[in-house]
Automatic annotation (TrEMBL):
It comes from the Bacteria. This is GTP cyclohydrolase 1 type 2 homolog. It comes from Spinactinospora alkalitolerans. GO terms for molecular function: metal ion binding. Homohexamer. GO terms for cellular component: cytoplasm.
Length: 275
């Protein structure tokens, strides 16, 4: 099962600092039900146990930094114990799924309305075909205002408490868009160099976004981190089912609809629908 998945999202494509692959579980155990989710958190493990999933595939790693103990005295240790105790394996596909083609940003681009002909925002130098890389650049079928695009993006992504934030003139016309699932302010320079009208990503920090906005040439759309990566789950699940071929008839592949964004509520925001 993991071998079929790794042919789609090769662990060798992951960043050097990343931790991808099988976190816990026996590679030889039979798999009848798989649950895809963004985050390996307690609620997702509860869901996996409830539906009797044999394997959970998450985008975010559980153990990214050095670990010296998985004792049940810590939240992550308790998750590991719960997974092992229930016979549920955990597998992570993080930056290898980000850079894959198609990958996380391809699914994000489709969700916010970009058309075909996508190309990497930050190409992977190790890919001679130039298809892999972080982020994607694409176009809208027709020009629209920044306001209309932000509304379209919000409608295409799962709802979160933080919603979608915008920097730029809401009435400016936009057509070319760069997207990057997850935290993307390291790609602000790449977005400007690409000459796009809008850069949509997540976790934009105040100072980089403020300095970027001073130029006034590229608008910013900031989404919730979880929301920008969630569209990939269905794509990853579908591609795995196709890769399994005839074996897929014996495997139930599901996508978690749990909202595991870190922010659960907002207060004091003005009415964003006002003109």
């Amino acid at each position: 099962m993991t071998a079929a998945f790794e042919r789609l999202y090769d662990p060798a494509w992951a960043a050097s600092w990343d931790a991808v692959g099988l976190v816990c579980g026996d590679p030889g155990q039979p798999v009848r039900r798989i649950l895809f989710a963004v985050d390996p958190v307690a609620e997702v493990v509860d869901e996996a146990v409830c539906i009797q999933a044999d394997l959970v595939i998450t985008h975010h790693p559980l153990l990214l930094r050095g670990v010296h103990s998985v004792a049940a005295t810590t939240p992550k240790g308790r998750l590991v114990h719960r997974l092992i105790g229930s016979g549920t394996a955990l597998y992570t596909a993080h930056t290898n799924a980000d850079t894959a083609a198609p990958g996380v940003s391809d699914a994000l681009a489709a969700a916010v309305g970009l058309t075909g002909g996508l190309r990497p925002l930050d190409p992977d130098p190790g890919d001679p075909e130039g298809r892999r890389g972080i982020g994607r650049i694409g176009t809208l079928p027709e020009p629209m205002t920044l306001r209309a695009f932000a509304e379209q993006a919000a409608a295409g992504l799962p709802a979160t408490a933080a919603g979608v934030r915008v920097s730029g003139d809401l009435e400016r016309p936009v057509r070319t868009v760069a997207v990057s699932g997850g935290a993307g302010d390291s790609l602000l320079g790449a977005a400007r160099a690409a000459g796009v009208d809008v850069f949509l990503t997540s976790d934009l920090r105040h100072h980089p976004a403020s300095e970027f906005a001073e130029h006034g040439d590229v608008a910013l759309v900031d989404t919730a981190h979880w929301a920008s990566e969630w569209p990939w789950l269905a794509d990853g699940a579908s591609r795995l089912a196709s890769a399994l071929g005839g074996r897929a008839t014996n495997v139930d592949v599901r996508v978690s609809a749990l909202v595991t964004d870190a922010w659960s509520q907002t207060f004091g925001a003005p009415d964003s629908t006002a003109p």
